[in-house]
């Protein structure tokens, strides 16, 4: 059942305002998500990593790492040895790697023999990529000195201008650490390694391009990937805040465009394959040197390196290039290079919902929640509050399967906040409606109590006293005001005229009809012909045009041991014959009063004898149900009469009352019950 129309309008407007407010907060303040949203998504991605968001693993990526044992066993000192490193690289070239991505910056010269050796070995590789690092800023205020240094350096040949679809907010290179010119000359490509953590200190995003003056420099892994698929930086399209598109060109090595989702700064979420050291095959530099000297291991090393992107980096204890990632703590940051390269090779990226999608999601959640408040039954509101989060969980799992993320926790907070605000309003209206209902019930109870008094005042206060017959009555109503009625009238000739009536239904309307019957009985009871009496009463009731209100009635005249009666739709009259000790049932069929005019009601006359008992009742007695849904049959009532042949009407009614209670048990009667018992003296 819906609430009042005015309340519905208020709730709908409130839901709309809540949605606008939540949408404004999400777009203005939350945007890509809060710190709590990041941690929530980290947990979900990691928890469902193997079952739902299983990131594909490229077999083209391996690590060649310099660790503590490399310093102890190979370099035999705590300083990086460029000469020994160069000699090791010369052996790596024998195993035909696809490309060497060096995550080491040789910014300053060392001794000339070592630098010369390293330069010579780097030149041996067809594809080697050396990094640069910058401090990043949002506004170009690096100054002419830095811009001039970049433009006039070897790094300038790796800068380019992509196709810009719109104006974003790319990070701009500030002061940085560049690979020395003599080394950078040997590189086939270069790129930045200037990623930085989110506000909570965790590395989740990587920057694909940074702006240097008017041109752009790709990240180190991005530079290697573009060269591998034969696409230049100036051929890619950048739609800031949406995506970077790598087009499939005739000369390229890809069959379809690759879209990389980015924010307005050019960042994308890093799809970490697994924890560091468990994500891609790894071999330490000193182990590699040892195995390369063993002829029996040449086949294994060839399988390990041939056609692979070899990411070289220092992962020894105490390095600065280390940080917390969304998967584990204190991870070497060369894992960013490896995992982002894996994302490019497998075309697997996490998409983020845009503002319109989040606003529509909030609209759906708040609209359904608001709609549930329109019902008077508050359980619908609570049920939907439980159901919608379950549907939200299903949505989250579906989105994870498709590598899509949204600020889940912020959406939940908005949803719960909306629920609380709506709950306060719903409770207010519910309490108000409850109070109003209580007032209405009190008024109704008062009115029904007054109607009850009127109805009871219409029943005879004194039962007729005759020498030849003894009378007793019983009435039980199913509501405060019943639809049953009985009355007695002893005329001047000592004729006892009495009736029993049953108006349709019960309650106030039935009580109104009882009033009508009482009035008609008083008005027409002097009539002798019973058929005429019923038709006159029926005609008057019909003229009243009371909707769907009719009266069943049995009318009696008793005089000198003769009982004459007629019936308009009432149950049979039962007469116990004391002489034969059996029960006769008299059924007189007839239409209820108020249906049609001039119905031919039949009249029956019965001779009574001393000891005979007459049982007259409304249908409330014969239509009583027990707990097994069985109806009280006339045979049970007849048997009670046979067993009570020697008892008075008062005692018979007491036994009938016990029978009623035993039969119904805990079930409340659904209809009024009226009983008249007469016994011939």
Give me a quick take on this structure.
The chain is α/β, with parallel strands linked by helices. The protein contains 19 helices and 30 strands.
What does this structure look like?
The strands form eight sheets. Strands 1, 2, 3, 5, 6, 15 and 16 form a seven-stranded mixed β-sheet that branches. The protein has a five-stranded antiparallel β-sheet with strand order 21-30-29-26-27. A five-stranded antiparallel β-sheet has the order 22-23-24-25-28, covered by helices on one side. β26 (573-577) and β27 form a beta hairpin. The chain has three domains: 1-55 and 353-458, no CATH class; 58-229 and 267-347, no CATH class; 464-680, Phosphatase 2c, domain 1, CATH 3.60.40. It is rod-shaped. The protein contains 19 helices and 30 strands. Helices cover 41% and strands 21% of the residues. The chain is of the alpha/beta class and 681 residues long.
Fraction of residues in helices? 40-55%
Estimate the strand proportion.
Answer: 15-25%
Largest sheet: 7 strands, mixed
Task: Indicate the low-confidence ranges by residue numbers.
Answer: 142-146
Helical/strand content category: alpha/beta
Radius of gyration over all CA atoms, rounded: 49 Å
Q: What is the count of β-strands?
A: 30
**Number of helical segments?**
19
Q: What sort of overall outline do the alpha carbons produce when their principal axes are compared?
A: rod-shaped
Overall average pLDDT: 90
The first-to-last residue Cα distance is 59 Å
Query: What number of domains?
Result: 3
List the helices and strands and how they pair.
Layout: H1 5-30, H2 35-47, E1 61-66, H3 68-75, H4 82-92, E2 99-102, H5 112-124, E3 128-137, H6 144-151, E4 163-164, E5 172-177, H7 181-184, E6 189-192, E7 202-203, E8 205-207, E9 209-212, E10 215-218, H8 220-228, E11 237-239, E12 243-246, E13 258-261, E14 267-269, E15 282-284, H9 285-292, H10 298-305, E16 309-314, E17 322-325, E18 331-332, H11 334-346, E19 351-352, H12 355-372, H13 378-401, E20 404-405, H14 408-458, E21 469-476, E22 484-490, E23 496-503, H15 508-524, H16 530-544, E24 551-559, E25 562-568, E26 573-577, E27 582-586, E28 603-607, E29 613-617, H17 619-622, H18 634-643, H19 649-664, E30 673-680
Parallel strand pairs: 1-15, 1-16, 2-3, 2-16, 3-6, 4-11, 7-17, 19-20
Antiparallel strand pairs: 3-5, 8-14, 9-10, 11-12, 12-13, 17-18, 21-30, 22-23, 23-24, 24-25, 25-28, 26-27, 26-29, 29-30
């Amino acid at each position: 059942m819906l609430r009042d129309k005015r309340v519905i309008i208020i709730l709908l407007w409130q839901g709309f305002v809540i949605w606008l407010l939540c949408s404004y907060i999400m777009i203005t303040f939350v945007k890509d998500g809060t710190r709590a949203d990041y941690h929530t998504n980290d947990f979900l991605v990691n928890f469902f990593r193997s079952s739902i968001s299983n990131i594909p693993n490229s077999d083209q990526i391996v690590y060649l790492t310099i660790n503590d044992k490399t310093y102890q066993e190979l370099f035999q000192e705590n300083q990086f040895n460029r000469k020994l490193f160069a000699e090791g690289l010369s052996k790596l070239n024998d195993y035909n790697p696809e490309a060497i991505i060096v995550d080491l910056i040789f910014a300053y010269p060392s001794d000339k023999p070592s630098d010369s050796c390293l330069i010579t070995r780097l030149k041996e590789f067809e594809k080697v990529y050396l990094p640069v690092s910058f401090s990043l800023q949002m506004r170009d205020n690096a100054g002419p000195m830095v811009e001039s240094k970049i433009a006039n350096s070897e790094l300038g040949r790796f800068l380019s201008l992509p196709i810009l679809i719109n104006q974003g907010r790319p990070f701009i290179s500030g002061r940085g650490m560049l690979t020395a010119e003599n080394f950078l000359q040997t590189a086939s490509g270069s790129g930045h390694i200037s990623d930085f953590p989110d506000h909570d200190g965790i590395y989740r995003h990587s920057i694909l391009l940074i702006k240097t003056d008017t041109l752009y420099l790709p990240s180190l892994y991005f530079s290697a990937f573009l060269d591998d698929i034969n696409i230049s930086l100036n051929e890619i399209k950048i739609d800031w805040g949406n995506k970077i598109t790598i087009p499939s060109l005739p000369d390229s090595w890809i069959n379809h465009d690759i879209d990389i989702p980015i924010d307005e700064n050019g960042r994308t979420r890093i799809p970490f394959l697994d924890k560091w050291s468990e994500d891609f095959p790894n071999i330490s530099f000193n182990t590699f040197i040892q195995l390369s000297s063993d002829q029996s291991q040449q086949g294994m090393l060839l399988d390990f390196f041939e056609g692979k992107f070899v990411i070289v980096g220092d992962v020894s204890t105490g390095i600065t290039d280390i940080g917390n990632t969304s998967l584990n703590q204190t991870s070497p940051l060369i894992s960013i290079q490896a995992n982002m390269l894996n994302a490019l090779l497998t075309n697997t990226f996490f998409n983020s919902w845009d503002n319109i999608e989040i606003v529509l999601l909030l609209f759906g959640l708040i609209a359904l929640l608001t709609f549930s408040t329109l019902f008077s039954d508050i359980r619908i509101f609570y049920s939907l509050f439980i159901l919608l989060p379950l549907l939200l969980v299903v949505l989250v799992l579906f989105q994870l399967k498709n590598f899509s993320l949204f600020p889940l926790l912020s959406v939940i907070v908005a949803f719960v906040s909306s629920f609380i605000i709506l709950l306060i309003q719903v409770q207010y209206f519910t309490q108000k409606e409850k109070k109003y209902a209580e007032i209405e019930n009190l008024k109704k109870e008062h009115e029904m109590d007054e109607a009850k008094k009127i109805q009871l005042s219409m029943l005879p206060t004194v039962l007729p006293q005759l020498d030849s017959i003894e009378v007793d009555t019983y009435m039980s109503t199913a509501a405060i005001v019943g639809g049953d009625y009985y009355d007695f009238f002893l005329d001047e000739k000592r004729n006892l005229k009495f009736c029993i009536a049953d108006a349709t239904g019960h309650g106030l309307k039935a009580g109104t009809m009882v009033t009508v019957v009482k009035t008609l009985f008083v008005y027409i009871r002097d009539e002798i012909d019973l058929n005429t009496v019923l038709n006159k009463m029926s005609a008057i009731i019909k003229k009243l045009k009371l909707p769907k209100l009719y009266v069943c009635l049995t009318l009696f005249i008793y005089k000198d041991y003769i009982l004459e009666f007629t019936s308009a739709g009432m149950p049979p009259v039962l007469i116990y014959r004391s002489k034969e000790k059996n029960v006769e049932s008299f059924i007189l069929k007839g239409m209820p009063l108020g249906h049609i005019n001039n119905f031919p009601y039949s009249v029956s006359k019965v001779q009574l004898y001393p000891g005979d008992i007459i049982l007259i009742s409304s249908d409330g007695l014969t239509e009583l149900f027990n707990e097994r849904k069985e109806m009280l049959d006339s045979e049970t009532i007849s048997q009670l009469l046979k067993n009570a042949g020697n008892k008075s009407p008062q005692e018979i009614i007491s036994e009938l009352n016990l029978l009623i209670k035993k039969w119904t048990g805990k079930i409340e009667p659904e209809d009024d019950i009226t009983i008249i018992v007469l016994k011939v003296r």
